[in-house]
Amino acid sequence: MIELTHITKEYGKRKSLNDVTFTFEKGKVYGILGPNGSGKSTIMKMMAGLVYPSKGIVKVGEKKADRKIASNLAFLASEGMLYPSFKIDQMIDFFHSQYSDFSMEKAEELLVFMELDRHQKVSQLSKGQQGRLKLLLVLSRQTDVLLLDEPFMGLDPMVRDTIVKGLVSFIDYGKQTVIITTHEITEIEPVLEEAIVLEKGQIRAHCNVEEIREEQGLSILEWLKSTFKQEDVS
Amino acid sequence: MLKGLLKKDFWLIKTYMLVWLCAVVVIYAAGAGFASYHDQFHLVFPFLMMLYMGHIVMLPTAAWILLKAEEKGQYWLHGTAGGKKLLLSKMMISFFVTMTSLFVTNVLMLISLMISVPLPYFPLMENGSFPFFEGVLLNGGITLGAFYFTLWGLFLWAFYHSLTKYPVLKKIRWVIIIAMYLIIQTVIARITEWKMVQSFFNQWTIQVGLPESKFETYNAMSFSFTMTGGEIQVWPIVLGAIYLLILFLAAGWLLDRKVEV
User: Fold this and answer.
1) Domain that residue A204 falls in
2) What is the ipTM of this complex?
3) Which of A43, B96, B174, B234 to pair with A128, CA 20 to 30 A apart?
4) Total structural domains in chain A?
5) Which H/E stretch holds residue B207?
6) How many Cβ atoms sit within 10 Å of the Cβ of residue B109?
7) Does the CB of A14 have a partner CB in chain B at under 8 Å?
C-alpha cells in the first residue's frame, strides 16, 4: 500500500503537485494519466524517494519514502537508468549486485521474452530495445511495488505491444502494486484496474476500469472524453 | 553492494583509463624522442615532471567522469546504497586509476634515471637502495593534492546539484559555488595565519630525518635534488584530514537529503 497524504511539491512559486491525497491499494494495477506538466513524473519520483515533498507525507508500506525505499520498490525511470557503454549482461549484473530481490532466473526468462542479445551494448540498442531492457531490469525484481514512469515514451506500436504483453505475463497480479504513468491510454487499458487523471498537480478524476467498462460500456479514453466534456460544459 | 558499485564504476571508466595510460606512454615516447634527437636524454625529465603534475588533476578528473556518467536522470540515487557509499565507490575507483597511472609514470621515471644517470653517478642505486623516500614524498604530495581537489570537487558537485530545486538560484549556481569555495578558503587561510594558531600547530611536530639525495653534474647538464631533515607540523595534517573527511560526509549527506531529480 502506498499512501500520499496532503502532498505538495513546490519549485519556487510553481506547484508541481498541490495537496494530493490518495492511497494505492496493494495488488492493484494503476494508471496515472494526464497531460505533460500535470505532475505525473513528480508523483512517481516522490514515491521512488528521488524527490521530497514540500508538504505532506509519502509512505510505502510502513516506511516513509526516501532514498532507502529503493529496496522496497522497483522504479522504471523515463530517462537515465542505463549506461550506454555497458553491455546488456553488465546492466543485469549490476542490478543483481544492488538488489537482493533481483531474480537472475526471471531476468533470463525476460531476455528471451524481450528478444534481447545479452552481448549487445546499450549504446547500440534501438529505443525500443532500450525500453525493453529497462522493463527487464525492473520486472526481474521480486518487489511488492513497481513504478513505471512513461514506459512507452518514444516507442513504436509494435514495441508498446511487446511491453504490454511483458507486463501481462510477468506482473504478479494480486500481490504487486503496479503504477504506470503514460499518454498511451489505449495500449495500457488491458492491464489497468484503476485509472487516475492528474491535471495541474491535482487529481481530477479516478475510476475503476472494470466498472466503467461493464456499467457504462466505455473505454478509458471514452470515459476521459465524456468526463472532461461534462466538466467543461458545467 | 559496494563490490557491485566498484565493478560498475570500473566499467564506466575502463576505456578512459586505457586511453590515458596510452597517452602517458605516448607523451613519454615523444619526450624520449625529443631528448634523443637533441642527444641529451635528460630533456625527457620535463615531460616526466609534466606527467607527474598531471596526476594532481587526474584524480578529480576521473571522479568527474564518473559523476558525469550519472548526471542524466540521476537514477543512481535510486538504489540500496546511500550517498556516502555511492561517492566512496567513485573515490576508490578514481584513486585506483590514478595510482595505476602514477605507477606507470614511476616506472618510466626509474628507467629514465637509469638511462640518464649511469650507476656511478646514481648514488642511491649505487648504495643498493631504491630512492624510496623521495618517491614516497613526491607520490604522496601529488596524491594528497589530488585528494584535496577531488573531495572539494565532490562536495561542490553535490552542492551544485542540490540547488537545482531552487529555480531562482538555478541560473547562478556556478557563481554561488565559486564564491563559497573562495570564501571558505580565504577564511581558513586567514585563521592559519594567526599567531595563536601557529603556536598551536608548533605544539606537535615530528622530526623527519630525510636522507640526503643529490644528483651531481652530469653530461653538461646540471640538476640537483637535495633534501634535508626538518620538522613537520602534525596538527595541520590531522586537521586537514578531518576537514577533507567533513567535506566527504557533507557531500554524501547532500546527495541523500538535498539532491533531487
Assistant:
1) 2-233
2) 0.88
3) A43
4) 1
5) strand B205-208
6) 20
7) yes
